[in-house]
Write a structure and sequence with these properties.
- The complex is a heterodimer of chains A (334) and B (580).
- Chain A has 334 residues and is mainly alpha-helical.
- In chain A, α10 runs parallel beside α15, α12 packs across α14 and α17 runs antiparallel to α18.
- With 580 residues, chain B is of the alpha/beta class.
- Chain B folds into three domains: 241 residues, D-Maltodextrin-Binding Protein, domain 2 (3-Layer(aba) Sandwich); 192 residues, 3-Layer(aba) Sandwich (D-Maltodextrin-Binding Protein, domain 2); 60 residues.
- In chain B, a hairpin with a 2-residue loop joins β7 and β8.
- Classes of the chains: A mainly alpha (334), B alpha/beta (580).
- Chains A and B meet through α5, α17 and α18 of A and α1, α2, α5, α6 and α19 of B.
């Protein structure tokens, strides 16, 4: 990854003073050419980006047109555009409802817990794997840790339920063998969040670590060699070389995770839910599902409004964290 | 990313949106008003049953053995009436193994009616709902929709009907559908249960009067290995001492839960026992002298819960039930040496065993036998009975149908006995035949028809078309007398509960709501139900104490803050409108 302007890590460290000066004239020259000419000039690039743009339009932007039903009383007769306009009625109804605060709290607590627990572990795993000298061993560990990512959520929940079964569960039996009375993993509302978050960490940590491993591979070995000559220990080298190298990527991933903070894994929560843990397991998504469909007529508008409300909060959080990140670490999404 | 986060709700809207986009040229060609149903004109007044019948019932075909006092469809001559040319589009469901083009029953209907149908199919379940909604909002309406039992609730049919999307069928039935009208005259409730708030009927209701389903919500089973039939407890006190005695009985399989069930059926099990303290209902709503009341706030409910709490503390009721999955319960039921529990809830034996064949020796389906409701400390002995679960709004004709008269007659023909049986059993002589004299039906009376065990590949519609199955029709199926069958054992289970059923005046029917009412009741139902279940779990695990006045008050206040009063008001309004 070493290019003429230095490698990735060097770029982070040094601000090239002469680069902007070199670039400016070219940009000015570009601006004088017409858009059409510029498109023609590099049509290959636009062709490459076309599928992605099409995907975005079809699956991300076009469906946004349907969000308007959150402000209407949707009926199949009126359709998306012809149903009665009710403005913010559905939003007020949700915010004033009996369940609003418990739902918001459950959603946020679960999401933040997941974020905090799920963020450092892949980094630690990547650092550890990177430090292992025996490549064979590190590959095997990597394979084992990232394979759970490919198991479907339904299967994972099935496994959790089996492993933690109060009568037949291996985990419960193992705990009993060493003399610990196993807690009611699946029914205690206090345990729901731990089970949810840590099974998620188990499932995704290995896969998330791959990104960090890629970033670590761009760290020039000379830096490590020089540090070794200076007598730096493993931990010292991690702290002063590896971590600064992956910090920008870590920040970007953190911001991305904050963006999805409000959309906690719907399927998994629903599958792990039972009447006894409802106090902590009822989140906005599962509520939308139950209220939207469990009704003499499906409440599409109300469900969409709650979903939109959740997305807006997610967006606000995303912007806030992005702003903070730019302030503090000078790295951000936009 | 936020978009991704919102994918589920957006997807739904998106499907509808794409549906609309697909027909954009059509919309452009018409004025806004001509979108089917867009006019929204209210249906004219019509008094149901007032029009004179124009089509006579065909003559009865001799040679069918009906039991005494048989009420239901009869075998009659059917005259084809269609021109065989005009093609109607009808929506059915896509079911594995069913291809409408070569389907035996579809061809039989065409032969008997002379009407040519182009079937469109939509998936079962929620996906089908989305597809149909996209069709409805896109204005891409077929002539008729066969809804089965779950595509539209009675409220949905009424609301879409009042919007003008479905046409009223009541007058058409009265004039042109002698079989359906015959059903209405025999069972007047088939009219009132499916009448919309505006007084019209927008779907041809199909009757499916399932006797054993009426008590399946509270059906509870007891292990006959340890409790012989003559030792069934008759009172709760007897039940308690029997369970205590058997808890550590050496003949028991395992030493696990004595009384258990799955997490989703905990309220059903509780309702079974609460029935010994006061009348209860699966919906928790009851009628008291025409007034809708909330069950959990009634006198007796607290004593009932207190008794249940005592059973949890004594270890007779298992706290595992609050998290038990269907598979886990089946594993307990299928344990080596017989079911490891003594008492469990189950709509049928399939709820607790995978060896669901009572004719097999030592099958859990024959070891577990129905436990009848028991007498409570104050002499109360009741059980829920779903008096009104007798049919569903099954067949709608849309506003874009040009010849609704043909469509109504097409549906009507299928209400004839031979057609109704053929829909579920295929060709006469191959899948079924009329029963011989002396053959016994499910209820022990003369059987009407008998099924022939044959490979019925692409012959059936099961229950996905218009049909007429009264209780007598369902019980008219012959059963072998020497072996146990599922239908037979469930009939016996129904029999065991019938003497204790709550009176019909106490049961609140499934009501038809207006748009505004429907928008609210769903959320109330979910929240009230979950509040109740959470309290059940709390007393089961010892986190709350029913006998503590403060805890009880908090539980009751919970209902108030969720809005139980508004909920009851809506139910009352809808009830008075429909049955008042």
């Amino acid at each position: 990854m070493t290019t003429e302007s230095g490698n990735f890590v060097d770029q982070l460290r040094f601000d090239d003073d002469d680069k902007p000066a070199r670039r400016k004239p070219r940009q000015a020259e570009q601006r004088t050419r017409s858009l059409g000419a510029r498109l023609r000039g590099s049509w290959q690039l636009y062709l490459l980006v076309l599928p992605a743009i099409l995907w975005l339009i079809v699956f991300a932007y076009w469906p946004m047109y349907g969000i308007q039903i959150a402000f209407r009383n949707y009926t199949p007769v009126g359709g998306l555009t012809g149903s009665e306009w009710v403005g913010l009625d559905h939003f007020t109804r949700f915010i004033e409802s009996h369940n609003f605060w418990p739902l918001l709290r459950n959603t946020l607590v679960l999401a933040i817990y997941e974020l905090i627990a799920g963020f450092p572990i892949p980094i630690i795993l990547a650092l550890a794997l990177n430090a292992v000298r025996q490549k064979y061993f590190s590959r095997v560990v990597q394979l084992i840790t990232y394979s759970p990512n490919f198991i479907s959520v339904v299967v994972v929940v099935g496994m959790i339920v089996m492993l933690m079964d109060p009568q037949a569960g291996i985990v419960n039996h193992a705990l009993q063998l060493i003399g610990i009375e196993p807690p009611a993993f699946l029914t205690d509302p206090g345990w729901f969040r731990h089970v949810y978050v840590w099974s998620g960490v188990w499932q995704t940590a290995g896969f998330s670590a791959i990104i960090y491993l890629a970033a670590l591979s761009s760290v020039p070995p000379e830096l490590h060699e020089a540090a070794k000559v200076d007598g730096a220990s493993h931990l010292r080298r991690m702290w002063h070389i590896d971590i600064p190298a992956i910090l920008p990527i870590a920040m970007v991933l953190l911001i991305l995770n904050v963006g999805t903070i409000m959309s906690v894994g719907f399927e998994k929560v629903l599958l792990l839910q039972n009447p006894i843990n409802l106090a902590t397991s009822q989140v906005i998504d599962t509520y939308v599902y139950q209220v939207g469909l469990n009704s003499p007529i499906p409440q599409y508008s109300y469900a969409t409004a709650i979903g939109l409300f959740r997305s807006v909060i997610g967006l606000v959080l995303l912007l806030a964290v992005n702003h903070l990140s730019k302030r503090i670490t000078k790295a951000g999404l936009f | 990313m936020t978009l991704h986060a919102n994918r589920r709700t957006v997807l739904k809207a998106g499907v509808a949106g794409l549906g609309l986009a697909g027909v954009a040229p059509v919309l452009a060609a018409c004025s806004g008003d001509s979108i089917p149903g867009g006019g929204g004109e209210p249906a004219a007044e019509y008094e149901q049953g007032s029009a004179a019948l124009e089509v006579e019932l065909g003559p009865e075909i001799e040679g069918v053995n009906y039991p005494e006092d048989y009420a239901g469809p009869r075998h009659r001559e059917l005259e084809p009436f269609g021109d065989g040319q005009t093609e109607f589009s009808v929506i059915g469901r896509s079911i594995p193994g069913l291809s409408y083009l070569e389907n035996y029953y579809a061809n039989l209907v065409e032969e008997k009616t002379g009407v040519k149908i182009a079937y469109q199919d939509v998936p079962l379940g929620e996906d089908g709902q989305t597809t149909v909604n996209a069709m409805l909002s896109g204005g891409d309406l077929p002539d008729a929709i066969m809804c089965g039992m779950e595509l539209f609730s009675p409220s949905q049919v009424a609301i879409y009907g009042e919007m003008g999307m479905f046409i009223p069928v009541d007058e058409l039935i009265d004039r042109l559908a002698p079989h359906v009208r015959d059903m209405f005259e025999t069972f007047p409730e088939m009219r009132s249960l499916f009448t919309a708030p505006d007084g019209r009927m927008y779907a041809v209701p199909s009757m499916n009067d399932c006797y054993h389903c009426k008590s399946s919500g509270v059906r509870t089973w007891i292990n006959s290995d340890l409790v012989p039939a003559d030792a069934h407890p008759q009172t709760l006190a007897e039940f308690e001492s029997l369970m205590t005695e058997l808890k550590d009985h050496p003949d028991r399989t395992g030493s696990g839960a004595v009384v258990t069930t799955t997490s989703t059926t905990v309220p059903n099990l509780f309702n079974f026992f609460l029935g010994s303290f006061l009348p209860v209902s699966t919906t928790h709503l009851l009628l008291d002298d025409g007034k809708v009341v909330w069950g959990p706030s009634q006198e007796g409910y607290r004593e009932g819960l207190s008794w249940i709490q005592k059973q949890f503390r004594a270890g007779l009721f298992s706290t595992d039930m609050f998290a038990l999955t269907d598979e886990q319960l089946k594993r307990l039921g299928d344990a080596n040496g017989g079911p490891s529990f003594l008492v469990t809830h189950g709509g049928s034996q399939g709820s607790f065993t995978s060896v669901n064949d009572p004719s097999q020796e030592r099958s859990p389906a024959s070891i577990m036998v129905p436990l009848a409701p028991m007498e409570g400390p104050d002499g109360v002995r009741t059980c829920d009975w779903d008096w009104y679960q007798i049919g569903s709004p099954n067949f709608v004709i849309t506003s874009s149908c040009e010849d609704p008269e043909t469509m109504i007659r097409w549906a009507d023909h299928q209400f004839e006995l031979g057609m109704t049986v053929a829909m579920g059993a295929g060709e006469q002589g191959v899948g079924w035949d009329f029963a011989d004299e002396g053959a016994m039906g499910i209820n022990g009376a003369q059987a009407v028809y008998t099924r022939i065990p044959n490979d019925l590949d692409n012959q059936l519609w099961w229950e996905w078309g218009p049909y007429y199955k009264s209780e007598d029709q369902r019980h008219g199926e012959a059963v072998p007398q020497d072996t146990l069958t599922i239908e037979g054992t469930l009939y016996e289970a129904g029999k065991a509960y019938e003497p204790y059923r709550i009176p019909k005046e106490s049961k609140l029917p499934l009501l038809v709501f207006t748009t505004d009412e429907a928008a609210q009741v769903g959320e109330f139902e979910t929240n009230l139900g979950q509040h109740l279940e959470q309290f059940f779990a709390a007393i089961g695990t010892g986190r709350a104490d029913v006998d503590d006045d403060a805890a009880w008050q908090e539980f009751q206040d919970g209902f108030t803050s969720i809005g139980v009063d508004t909920f009851l008001e809506i139910q009352q309004t809808a009830y008075d409108r429909q049955f008042g």
